[in-house]
Queue: 2 jobs
Job 1
Amino acid sequence: MASRPPAVPSPQARRQAQIQALQAALAARDAQAIERLLGQWVHRQGVNQVQALHQELAAADPQGWSWWQAQQSQAIPEPVPAPAPVVAVTALPEPEQMPRASASRPAPAPSHPAVVQLRAWLPDREERRAA
């Protein structure tokens, strides 16, 4: 007899299991588990579903949810304004004006030694025209 593959839970069943796990973590006052489970929720359900989850958890366990809100308010420190950086402003030197190349002739080739060495391998114009 052939065995069937294990049944895959439906999305609704997975969602319900996540909510039950969050409710159990709230009841146990396990802040690390709540953080982990909320991160999974956002990953699987999306950020736009977080507000609905908050309402559902608050309705199921108002005391646990108020405890969690108090934990969150203590965990987020007030932002400390950073001191303004001291910047010394100095005038930049004027860039040297480069001569403009005329449109009728191309810009001169660079004279870097590596470029000169590579050009030595190229056939010159006369050889290319003859071919």
Job 2
Amino acid sequence: MNKLVLTVATAALAIAGTSSVACAAAPKAAAKSAAKPAAAAPAGGDSQAQHAMLYLKVLISGLQSDKIEEPVKGALVGCIYDNSLGKITESMDKVIAENSGKISRDNPSELLSVMAQICGYKPTAPAAGTAPAKPAPQGR
């Protein structure tokens, strides 16, 4: 698990350095109709669609990063292949809600770590250079 956290943390630097994907300008009529639902969104709350776009950006950035190991990337690809983005978003939102204060949507490395876990990635070995768990003390 420590290796995943370290790997994901180093990838956060790569993710944070990526620029946002720019959308093509929409026709004026479409822009006006799109503005109405955005105004109807609750104040201070993010919509599920906005969360989905954020999670997809994190997923793509993780897949493009050379700092993320192939097993993690494989779990992410398998997840997006087998599940809808809506289902992944619901799972991510649920985990974030259950761990409020511990996981921030502003931290891409935390989001990628949560997503990898949701997608079924389980580290197989402890990180290199970490001390093995100490055995429990024996009584006299």
